[in-house]
Structures are given as structure tokens and as C-alpha cells.
Amino acid sequence: MKIVLLDALTFGDTDLGGFDSLGEVVVHQTTSPSQVQERITDADVIVTNKIVISDELMAKAPSLKLICIAATGMNNVDLEAAAKRKIEVKNVAGYSTDSVIQHTFSMLFFLMTHSKYYDEYVKSGAYSKSPIFTDVSKSFFEVKGKKWGIIGLGSIGRGVANIASAFGAEVSYYSTSGVNRTQDFGRTTIDELLKSCDIISIHAPLNDKTNNLLDYEQLLTCKDGAIILNLGRGGIVNEEAIAKIIDEKNISFGLDVLTREPMVPNHPLSCVKNRENLYITPHIAWASVEARDSLIASVIENIASLK
User: Fold this and answer.
1) What CATH number is given for 97-280 in this structure?
2) 248-280 residue pLDDT tens
3) Catalytic member of 38, 261, 290, 301
């Protein structure tokens, strides 16, 4: 069995040795669209994180039996075409839940406590010259007593809600699908959530109901001093609207996802003046060492089940 990994660079330094017992393994760190066809032509199994696999590509890979998506989202594979060609498609769910929850709070505290400012204040030597033992020039607040709104109450959203509640936050949620319900937290509308919450975190998928869910007009309704964290998908919050409103109103944004990744050159967010209210990480919330190990282990299990 020939197994081809198309974008192994996304797994970082994760040990891929477990694939070797399953067959002949070919590892490509990256694969451009023009290289996909040649690389999968004689493959029995392909492993892709973000590489797009179309019907046209499948048609030119006669040995292909299984497409392993090393992620939860499956929108990079033509699932209908795969079913028609009797090619199995398997993803991995739940491997990064704890990692994303943790990164949500990491982003929150970076913004809420002005971590960058205080770190630089000490390292610049300014603290050594201070006449007093402390510096409170940047005010910060506690999570306790704040209203925290969750957009998307799946397993990640629910995990964030539980921890936010443990910190003493008053948690409410908006279900983007209308399916998820719980008695543990108050359900609300998107309009009420935006108007009333001090902290808003997004943990929803990108689809017709969530695309551009928060645009300029919606962001205008947010409270002064609100913190908005997007750990769902880029496109849920309009990035041009963020770039505009962040210089007009006291709102902070933490973004781990963008509409296009990697970030395009000269992105509007690169030009904001109020940079201390913006924190962007390069889609890393999913990628703790433990999460990547779990991901690869599950992909290997998916391949092993084919034999």
C-alpha cells in the first residue's frame, strides 16, 4: 500500500514514524496545486491537511482507496465525487478541543492584561528607573463578573463556557445552527449577545449562516471595551470592518483565523493604528504538541482500518 502525505510541514516536528508499518510512505512537506496530480497518481492512500482534492484529481488516481483528512473540516475534498468513485474519506474530530480552549484564554489574557506592554516595560529598563514598586498605567480587569458570550456551542464552545463560568463570568451563548441547546447557560440572540457582553468568543464553523456574521454595523453595537476572539473560521468576522472599527472604537480583537491563510501582504489589519488592541496568531490554536500527536495517531488508525 502506497501512502502519500501531501503537506506534512503542517504537522511540525510531530513523529510520523507510525506510518511506516502500514506500507510504502512518501512524505512531501508541501505540495502546490500543480504538483498534486503527479504525486497521487499511484497512491492507495493520501493524507491531506489543507490540499484540495477534486473529482478531476481522483479520476487520475486509479489506485486511490482512501483520502485521510488530517483535520476536522472536510471542505477541501469533493465528498460527492469520492462517494461516486467508492473512495473512502475519513477525517479526525475532537483531537484539538483542549488546545483551542486553552488558546482562547491565552488570547484573552494577552489582550485583557496588556501583557505585551508590561513585558516590554520591564525589559526596556523603564521599570528599573521607576520610583515605585509597581506600574498600573494600563488598567486591566478580572474575568469575574463579566458577561461572556459564546458564538457556537459545540464541544469547544462548551469547554470555553465551562472555564469562563469557573472564573466567575456570566455566560450566555448564540447557537449558529439552532441545534445546540443547554440548560447550563442562557441562550440569546446574536444582537443581544453583541450589545451586552464584555467578552465574545467565536467557535463556529464557516457556512451560509455564519459567513460575515459580524460586519461593521454589528461591531458598532458592541460595548465599549469589549474583547472579541475569533477561534472559529476566518470570514465569520469581516476583517475590513475590524481594521476600520479598531481605530474608531475601544474594542479589542484576538484572531487565530483569517479569511485567507497565510495572511495576504498589505492586509488591512497590518495598517491599523491602534495595534495594542489587536492580537493575531497564525492559526495555531489547534496545534499543541499533544493535539498534533493525537491527530497523527488517529490518521494512522484510519489507515490501519482499511487493511
Assistant:
1) 3.40.50.720
2) 999 999 999 999 999 999 999 999 999 999 999
3) 261
